[in-house]
Design brief:
Layout lengths: L27 H8 L3 E2 L9 H4 L5 E5 L5 E6 L2 E7 L2 H17 L9 E5 L8 H9 L15 H15 L1
Antiparallel strand pairs: 1-5, 2-5, 3-4
């Protein structure tokens, strides 16, 4: 049985205050934590569940006070860069929580940037992700890499084994 833990009782790693016009990776508190061995959790929809199954001792979060932009192009050239509106943020969060619901995972807390540390036996968070994807690459695999119950269960078992 997979249990999910969004760490609702966990305090933020650092007390960021006020939105600033930088992407998540460039927030000062994120830069500081990355320097201490943390990695931003991937934002791709495939990995939206990851912080909920990652061990508490190897995850933290900061308030998301970054800015994301929509780029408008003409003939392959960016002609305008516009910050996401509150509606776009809400739509993205709703889409992510819809994916989580399909996999029977509770909604994630909003406005958090998650940071993860790999287990000592693995060189990076990306290496953990690669291990999670390895079995799905076989043509015989019944595991489809998406935010679904089978993949989440596989990820939970694999991550638990890596941290044991």
């Amino acid at each position: 049985m997979v249990s999910f833990d969004w760490g609702l009782d966990e305090p933020a790693a650092t007390p960021g205050v006020g939105c600033i016009a930088v992407p998540p990776a460039d927030l000062p508190e994120v830069v500081e934590l990355v320097g201490q061995g943390w990695s931003l959790a991937p934002e791709e929809p495939l990995w939206v569940f990851l912080p909920a199954i990652w061990p508490r001792t190897h995850r933290t979060w900061v308030a998301d006070r970054s800015t994301r932009w929509v780029e408008h192009s003409r003939d392959g050239v960016v002609v305008e860069r516009v910050p996401w509106s509150a509606d776009v943020y809400a739509e993205v969060e709703s889409d992510y929580n819809g994916l989580l619901a399909e996999a029977e995972i509770p909604p994630r807390p909003a406005n958090r940037l998650w940071l993860l540390k790999p287990p000592s036996s693995v060189v990076s968070v990306q290496a953990v992700l690669d291990r999670l994807l390895e079995p799905t690459l076989s043509p015989d695999s019944e595991i489809v890499p998406s935010c679904n119950s089978a993949f989440v269960s596989h990820a939970h078992r694999t991550i638990h084994a890596l941290f044991s």
